[in-house]
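Inverse folding, one chain.
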């Protein structure tokens, strides 16, 4: 009896040992696979998320980006909308370039209208800027002025007859602050927006120094940085034909939308989508 029990115990011990060894053989590869999957996921998410910098245009302020900012923040992005001084292309580009240098990590830089000319100059030679996005914007080549570009294609409402130019302290000779006349602003800049909203924008517009129209643009950042463009086909300020020509010269990925000059207000979802295309391409 004792010999039989001892033999059974020995066999049971052998069986248990064999089971433990078999389970261990299964568990180790599974843990290695899990570790490999974890490493793969980590590698796929390597690198910081780009910061997104939004540069507003003439006769606007940072609030023009509100609809886009809300959407980008909801997606977890760090967003900056620094004020554009509107003091002329040279000054405004240097101001933005200094701001960009205060940010760590990669940047996707977005410009609306005149802000497109500013980002074209501010990002030149900046390795942190991984993509440019032009929204109803100027994308000038070297040596071009905004006045020359507007004169090259008919149809812009941003002409001297629709501007109210006033002096400002310390202005260089022949330079003043230009406003779009309030009576013209809704149909020129804000067609397609609700009338009450357009009327408020007309009153709260920020002026731009007239020198911004005559400052020659420098070496364009789009020569070395991938670009995207949103072109509002109902834009009365920068004719769509001009926007398309500049975007094509810049080699930009172009999205057309039936929108006015302020497409980031009228169609923030479309503008956000294009920004995210640039973000995903840059990461």
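Residues assigned per position:
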């Amino acid at each position: 009896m004792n010999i039989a029990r001892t033999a059974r115990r020995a066999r049971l011990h052998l069986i248990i040992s064999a089971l433990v060894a078999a389970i261990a053989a299964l568990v180790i590869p599974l843990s290695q696979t899990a570790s490999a999957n974890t490493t793969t996921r980590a590698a796929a998410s390597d690198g910081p998320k780009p910061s997104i910098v939004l540069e507003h245009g003439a006769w606007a302020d940072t609030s023009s980006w509100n609809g886009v900012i809300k959407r980008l923040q909801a997606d977890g992005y760090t967003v900056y909308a620094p004020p554009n001084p509107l003091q002329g292309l040279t000054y405004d580009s240097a101001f933005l370039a200094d701001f960009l240098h205060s940010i760590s990590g990669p940047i996707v830089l977005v410009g609306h209208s005149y802000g497109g000319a500013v980002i074209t100059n501010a990002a030149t030679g900046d390795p942190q800027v991984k993509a440019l996005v032009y929204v109803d914007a100027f994308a000038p080549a070297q040596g071009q002025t905004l006045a020359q570009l507007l004169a090259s294609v008919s149809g812009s409402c941003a002409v001297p007859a629709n501007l109210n130019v006033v002096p400002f302290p310390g202005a260089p000779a022949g330079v003043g602050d230009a406003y779009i006349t309030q009576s013209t602003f809704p149909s020129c800049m804000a067609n397609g927006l609700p009338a009450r909203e357009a009327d408020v924008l007309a009153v709260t517009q920020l002026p731009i120094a007239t020198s911004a129209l005559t400052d020659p643009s420098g070496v364009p950042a789009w020569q070395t940085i991938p670009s995207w463009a949103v072109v509002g086909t109902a834009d009365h300020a920068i004719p769509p034909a001009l926007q398309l020509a500049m975007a094509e010269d810049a080699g930009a990925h172009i999205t057309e939308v039936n929108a006015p000059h302020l497409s980031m207000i009228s169609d923030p979802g479309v503008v956000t989508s294009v920004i995210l295309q640039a973000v995903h391409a840059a990461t």
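The beta strands are 51-55, 79-80, 107-112, 129-135, 163-166, 177-180, 208-209, 227-232, 253-257. DSSP finds ten helices and nine strands in the chain.
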